[in-house]
Write a structure and sequence with these properties.
This protein is α/β, with parallel strands linked by helices. It has two helices and eight strands, in the order βαββββαβββ.
Length: 130
């Protein structure tokens, strides 16, 4: 039986900087920050929106994941559901978060692409109310 999506990886070049961005700038919960194995240079760092179940794994591009180096700073195809997107965008801009464009409206909702601390593009979506 499947219960939920556990983690979605976002590949980063600096786990500490990414953790700081997701926790301190976006306000996500730090779910885990632990050694991958004794002596590892990379860590298992995962975050989630407050109360969220699916965790975002901030995966370092190290010798084991070097084939993912080309995706750092590119769209990670990660969508975050949000509410009051205009206010959230204003709040994040005040914290220095960069956006690709202004909020767009479509029949399926409002959306905007933002950049994380590593240059990864993430899609914020506010679902429509009917």
């Amino acid at each position: 039986m499947f219960n939920r999506v556990g983690t979605v990886s976002v590949f980063v070049s600096d786990q500490q900087r990414a953790k700081d961005f997701y926790v301190n700038t976006l306000g996500f919960e730090l779910k885990q920050d632990a050694e991958l194995y004794p002596g590892a240079t990379s860590r298992w760092v995962s975050v989630a929106p407050q109360g969220g179940e699916t965790e975002i794994m901030l995966q370092a591009v190290d010798e084991n994941w070097s084939h993912y180096a080309p995706v750092v700073g590119k769209s990670q195809a990660l969508t975050l559901d949000v509410s009051d997107i205009e206010q959230l965008v204003a709040d994040l801009k005040a914290k220095g978060v960069a956006f690709q464009q202004e909020v767009q409206s479509a029949p399926w909702g409002k959306s905007v692409f933002m950049y994380d601390s590593e240059g990864n593009m993430l899609l914020l979506v506010e679902q429509p109310t009917f």
